[in-house]
């Protein structure tokens, strides 16, 4: 972990906070307050939030103040994302959000140990950096971004490591969505345990 990070979790490096619509996965369409943390060691080539990788772009914020801001919105849903949020100690953030009676959702690649207490955990593994089994086992949702046909093998590999009740989701990588969406449709028809996620926020023109 970067020495600039507060290991206690009392403060966190924030790239942005905003109130919007969850665009992806099973909770798509729900209003939520987004907390985007800085720092990432996964660094996907197709990432659409590369500004979150560099902690120097962040503002250091106290978690109690973050929770206060989140509590002012009409929705009780909060999405903790990044970057890779599990690079940080999220215990204090989750405690602060819970005291505000908020429902806390995590979006992670699963490459760092789990901290914090979450109402929903979406794990989205990437092929170039293995997720931890201990995080996969806690996933409520396994979301695999499909860029090419090879990624279906990765999807099945990680599907074997999540709990039986975990929801399995395939999502087309945006830059290739017209091509791979057709592959995903056929795959889900043949493997109906999987569902399809699309990035609805990009169609709606919201972040």
Keywords:
9 strands; 207 residues; 9-stranded mixed beta sheet; alpha/beta; 6 helices; globular
Overview of the molecule:
With 207 residues, this protein is α/β, with parallel strands linked by helices. Helix content is 24%, strand content 25%. The chain is built from six helices and nine strands; from the N terminus they run E-E-E-H-E-H-E-E-H-E-H-E-H-E-H. The longest helix is centred in the last third of the chain and has 14 residues, at 177-190. The radius of gyration is 16 Å and the shape is globular.
- Uncertain segments are none
How would you write the strand order of the largest sheet?
A: 3-1-2-4-5-6-7-8-9
Span from first to last CA?
28 Å
- Largest sheet report: 9 strands, mixed
Which class of secondary structure composition applies to the elements?
alpha/beta
- What's the gyration radius in Å? 16 Å
E-strand count:
9
Helix content: 10-25%
Number of helices: 6
Mean pLDDT: 91
Strand residues, percent: 25-35%
Report the order of strands and helices.
Answer: EEEHEHEEHEHEHEH
Shape from CA axes?
A: globular
């Amino acid at each position: 972990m970067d020495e600039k990070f507060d290991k206690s979790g009392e403060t966190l490096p924030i790239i942005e906070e905003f109130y919007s619509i969850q665009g992806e996965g099973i909770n798509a369409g729900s209003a939520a307050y987004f907390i985007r943390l800085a720092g990432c060691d996964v660094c996907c080539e197709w990432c659409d939030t590369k500004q979150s990788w560099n902690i120097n772009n962040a503002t250091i914020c106290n978690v109690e103040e973050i929770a206060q801001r989140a509590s002012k919105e009409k929705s009780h849903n909060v999405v903790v994302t990044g970057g890779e949020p599990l690079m940080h100690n999220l215990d204090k953030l989750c405690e602060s959000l819970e005291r505000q009676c908020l429902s806390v959702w995590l979006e992670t690649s699963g490459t760092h140990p789990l901290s914090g207490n979450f109402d929903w955990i979406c794990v989205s593994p990437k092929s170039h950096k293995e997720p931890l089994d201990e995080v996969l086992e806690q996933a409520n949702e396994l979301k695999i971004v499909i860029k090419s046909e090879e990624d279906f093998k990765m999807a099945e590999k990680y599907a074997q490591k999540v709990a039986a009740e975990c929801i399995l989701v395939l999502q087309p990588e945006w830059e290739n969505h017209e091509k791979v969406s057709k592959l995903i449709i056929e795959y889900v028809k043949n493997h109906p345990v999987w569902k399809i996620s699309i990035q609805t926020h990009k169609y709606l023109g919201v972040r």
